[in-house]
């Protein structure tokens, strides 16, 4: 079984502050420059143009909702309530299949309550119906942080 | 096909990959010259009125796509729950999909809890959904229904604003319809006699004064006893009568030759299941 390297710093560090820009640090290959072989050609002008106004808020939507819910819960019931729930979330998030296979996230959905609601993320762009597959070795290496 | 540059599986939901490309295309073509397809708008008149023991919703049936009438018999009153219906103005696809999602969510809720959904629940779900997308979903909705707390009408705007009012008109013809409603609305009207006539007249005023509304009028009457969806309530006087038949007579196209190929089927397996006919 593969080990999961969890980000132990909490919710704030997982927020994506921006749409990933090729050519700058996070996507750098092993030599510090943009990995043309894997990421393709990049153009700074293309990356600096504003993307859709909703793109950022949609990327972070689930995290922001969780933060909001936990803060409200903390204000009402005290610190213990969100701590217990976050422990359960962390446990549920570890029940995943390998990165290139689709995981059902059943436990996580039940905890969040999204197993009883239907939104656009259940209808549009369903990953179970995706026609393309990622390369298994590369995806596992990326998940483990080896890439 | 395995792609060597995909690091994470695709995120479900809206896909913004093409937004940069679209912006670039618009800039490249110049202002006013882009040939991007325009979404189908309903350019509507919709109205709703709370009366003594129920709710009356009305809508016209024209859907326009810029200057052309795309659909002469478009259904703008959508089903949400057995006791809740919703009129939608704005972009046709957005209103359709949003109301379908709302209907599914309310069905799941009523199956889970065993209760009939309330109109205020539907309004809250809609409001949360539309606020999340900051107006990108162009849906102006009038939610009306009868539940255990009474009969209600809510207006939900595309940016997530919610309004609870006794009578309401929306769409491009709302000014004309609102004029009629403001003039003749009385609280606690009788459903059958007055309310239906009032809504019909309001929609008619919208149809007459607005280019984006037209054709027939649909009315939906919701009471605690049930729903009466009358479609069309009144047909427009300006129907086009086809003068001729446009079907071709058999024999118009000469047949040159005919070839029949038999499809050979082989019976592999046969099972008989008896049906209970007693």
Automatic annotation (TrEMBL), chain A:
UniProt entry tagged with the keyword Chaperone: yes
One Gene Ontology CC term in the entry: cytoplasm
Keywords: Chaperone
Keyword Chaperone recorded: yes
Domain of life of the organism encoding this protein: Eukaryota
An example Gene Ontology biological process: proteasome assembly
Pfam families: UMP1
Residue ranges of coiled coil: none
Family: Belongs to the POMP/UMP1 family.
Entry protein name: Proteasome maturation protein
The organism of origin for this protein: Pygocentrus nattereri
Automatic annotation (TrEMBL), chain B:
GO MF term (any one): threonine-type endopeptidase activity
Location of the protein in the cell: Cytoplasm; Nucleus
Alphabetical UniProt keywords: Cytoplasm, Hydrolase, Nucleus, Protease, Proteasome, Threonine protease
Any Pfam family hit: Proteasome
InterPro entries: Ntn_hydrolases_N (IPR029055), Proteasome_bsu_C (IPR024689), Proteasome_bsu_CS (IPR016050), Proteasome_sua/b (IPR001353), Proteasome_suB-type (IPR023333)
SUPFAM superfamilies named in the record: N-terminal nucleophile aminohydrolases (Ntn hydrolases) (SSF56235)
Chemical reaction(s) catalysed: Cleavage of peptide bonds with very broad specificity
Chain segments annotated as coiled-coil in the UniProt record: none
GO biological process: proteolysis involved in protein catabolic process
GO cellular component: cytoplasm; nucleus; proteasome core complex
Domain Proteasome beta subunit C-terminal: start-end pairs: 242-272
Major subcellular location class: cytoplasm
Family: Belongs to the peptidase T1B family.
The protein's assembly and partners: Component of the proteasome complex.
PANTHER family (UniProt xref): METALLOPROTEASE TLDD, PROTEASOME SUBUNIT BETA
UniProt function note: Component of the proteasome, a multicatalytic proteinase complex which is characterized by its ability to cleave peptides with Arg, Phe, Tyr, Leu, and Glu adjacent to the leaving group at neutral or slightly basic pH. The proteasome has an ATP-dependent proteolytic activity.
Record protein name field: Proteasome subunit beta
Organism: Pygocentrus nattereri
């Amino acid at each position: 079984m593969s080990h999961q390297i969890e980000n132990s710093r909490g919710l704030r560090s997982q927020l994506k502050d921006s749409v990933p820009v090729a050519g700058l640090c996070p996507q750098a290959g092993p030599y510090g420059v943009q990995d043309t072989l894997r990421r393709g050609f990049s153009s700074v002008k293309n990356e600096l143009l504003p993307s859709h106004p909703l793109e950022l808020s949609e990327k972070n939507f689930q995290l922001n909702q969780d933060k909001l819910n936990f803060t409200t819960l903390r204000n009402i019931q005290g610190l213990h309530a969100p701590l217990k729930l976050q422990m359960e979330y962390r446990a549920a998030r570890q029940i995943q299949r390998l990165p290139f296979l689709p995981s059902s996230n059943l436990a996580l959905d039940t905890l969040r309550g999204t197993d009883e609601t239907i939104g656009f993320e259940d209808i549009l762009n369903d990953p179970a119906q995706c026609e393309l597959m990622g390369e298994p070795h590369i995806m596992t290496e990326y998940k483990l942080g080896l890439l | 096909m395995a792609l060597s540059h995909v690091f994470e599986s695709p995120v479900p939901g809206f896909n913004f990959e093409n937004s940069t490309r679209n912006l670039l295309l618009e800039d490249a073509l110049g202002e006013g010259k882009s040939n991007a397809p325009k979404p189908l708008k309903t350019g509507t008149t919709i109205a709703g009125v709370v009366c003594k023991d129920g709710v009356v919703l009305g809508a016209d049936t024209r859907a326009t796509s810029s200057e052309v009438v795309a659909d002469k018999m478009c259904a703008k009153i959508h089903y949400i729950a057995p006791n809740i219906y919703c009129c939608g103005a704005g972009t046709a696809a957005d209103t359709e999909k949003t109301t379908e999602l709302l209907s599914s969510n309310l069905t799941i809720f009523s199956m889970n809890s065993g209760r009939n959904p309330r109109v205020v629940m539907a309004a809250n779900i809609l409001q949360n959904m539309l606020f999340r997308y900051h107006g990108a979903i162009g849906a102006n909705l009038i939610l009306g229904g009868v539940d255990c707390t009474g009969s209600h009408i809510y207006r939900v705007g595309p940016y997530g604003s919610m309004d609870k009012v006794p009578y309401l008109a929306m769409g491009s013809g709302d000014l004309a319809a609102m004029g009629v409603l403001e003039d003749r609305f009385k609280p606690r009207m009788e459903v059958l006699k007055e309310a239906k006539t009032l809504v019909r007249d309001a929609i008619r005023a919208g149809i007459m004064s607005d280019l984006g509304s037209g054709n027939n009028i649909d009315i939906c009457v919701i009471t605690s006893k049930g729903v009466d969806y009358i479609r069309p309530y009144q047909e427009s006087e300006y129907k086009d009568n086809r003068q001729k038949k446009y079907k071709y007579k058999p024999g118009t196209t000469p047949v040159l030759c005919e070839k029949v190929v038999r499809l050979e089927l082989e019976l592999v397996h046969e099972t008989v299941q008896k049906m209970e006919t007693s």
